[in-house]
Design goal:
With 389 residues, the chain is an alpha/beta fold. It has 12 helices and 12 strands. It has a 7-stranded mixed sheet, with helices on both faces. A 3-stranded antiparallel sheet has the order 9-10-12. It has a two-stranded parallel sheet with strand order 1-11. The structure holds pyridoxal-5'-phosphate.
Length: 389
């Protein structure tokens, strides 16, 4: 067992913020059903409404927090939007869907489901830095477009899309605009107003809150078909007894994320720079994936030609360093990352790529430990490699 542990997989999930962990424990006694009329029920209810305001504040929706629906997480929020489009689109001829080739699997597979149901779906390609072509989007949006769904920040390479510009292109049309902002919220400023989105997805466990809880912003007037029917929780938009304690903890995590955001972003960007500069200096012929500036402050994706991503990951793991190849959801499959392939890096480089994602617990010491460990691993793997690069 290594005697040092370095966690650099914050895009897969984050540990609980210590204050959130305490709140979760305290809230274990918040057992009453938040839909009950008695004092304990009303207490649980007001805790949930406070959390709703905190989460709404983090995404610029505080003027009408009712627009935020609590869900079980990002996957459910995204699927709710696509299910809504299924119900709308099968009854009318405005049924075209536009999304991107680099979405998270829960959007990609929901879009493929609509495609299999006969909906015309267009998957926008991206350039070498992972950005969509805004002119192409403007050409594609027409009066047959039902939904445009574009992620704010990519989970694998960290590339940011120009959401305000996308809003300006889509808004004048009849189509609904959805943004999967799961990786953006808590890392960069997110604003449903200037982005002009109708739907926005976020998840608690990517911002130091508990797993199994998330949110879907639904603009007043935008349609919503519940994925889960039952009681009238969330005004009939999402049935099921509230997970009050987890929702309260999500609210606290959102409130802390909002307070810490400016300092958090600056600190992570500095650590990211230290890591990328150190790796570029120590290891020849590596390629930094993602946009050079329009990128999450915590995410660094690098291809190491002549070395396999899985082999690098295993050697780093033996040294106590936790990273990821592509996305956590994609590992276990031997297909090269769909995101890297969409940026045109080719299967060789896509297979030899590692995602480092930093977070609250990351230190300069952690970065230096990676810089002391990784060059030797790459040199050894390259010396055994049969491919030239
Ligand atoms: C993690 C993630 C999701 C899924 O969120 P869950 O709460 O784990 O279901 C969706 N989209 C993106 C971009 C993500 O990073």
């Amino acid at each position: 067992m290594p005697n040092k542990f370095v966690y650099m997989d914050y895009n897969a999930t984050t540990p609980l913020h210590p204050l959130v962990k305490q709140a979760l424990v305290d809230n274990l006694d918040l057992f009453a059903n938040a839909s009950s009329m008695h004092e304990q029920g009303r207490q649980a209810r007001s805790t949930i409404e406070a959390a709703r305001l905190y989460v709404a504040q983090l995404i610029g929706a505080q003027r009408n927090p009712e627009q935020l629906v609590f869900t079980s997480g990002g996957s459910e929020s995204n699927n709710t939007v696509f299910a809504t489009m299924f119900h709308l689109g099968r009854k009318q001829d405005r049924n075209q869907i536009i999304t991107t080739a680099i979405e998270h699997p829960c959007v990609l597979n929901a879009a493929k489901w609509l495609e299999s149901e006969g909906f015309p779906v267009h998957f926008l390609g991206v350039d070498g830095d992972g950005r969509i072509d805004l002119a192409e989007l403007a050409r594609l949006v027409n009066d047959k477009t039902l939904l445009v769904s574009i992620m704010a920040a990519n989970n694998e390479i960290g590339t940011l899309q120009d959401m305000p510009a996308i809003g300006r292109i889509v808004k004048p049309s009849l189509s609904w605009l959805h943004c999967d902002a799961t990786q953006a919220v808590g890392k960069i400023p997110v604003d449903v107003e200037s982005w002009q989105v109708d739907y926005l997805t976020l998840s608690s466990h990517k911002l130091y809150g508990p797993k199994g809880v998330g949110g879907l912003f639904v603009r007043k007037g935008a349609p919503l078909e519940p994925l889960i029917r039952g009681g009238h929780q969330e005004h009939g938009r999402r049935a099921g007894t509230y997970n009050s304690g987890a929702i309260a903890a999500f609210g606290l995590a959102a409130s802390l994320a909002r307070q810490e955001l400016p300092e958090y972003g600056q600190r992570l960007r500095a650590l990211r720079t230290r890591l990328v500069d150190g790796l570029l200096a120590a290891i020849p012929k590596i390629r930094v994936n993602g946009h050079p500036e329009q990128v999450l402050p915590n995410t660094l994706n690098i291809s190491f030609p002549g070395a396999e991503g899985e082999a690098i990951l295993l050697h780093l793991d033996l040294a106590g360093i936790a990273v990821s190849t592509g996305s956590a959801c994609a590992s276990g499959s031997l297909d090269p990352s769909h995101v890297l392939m969409a940026t045109g890096v080719g299967p060789e480089l896509a297979h030899g790529s590692i995602r480092f994602s930093l977070g609250r617990g990351s230190t300069a010491d952690d970065v230096d430990y990676v810089l002391a460990t990784l060059p030797g691993i790459i040199a050894r793997l390259r010396s055994m490699s049969t491919v030239s690069f």
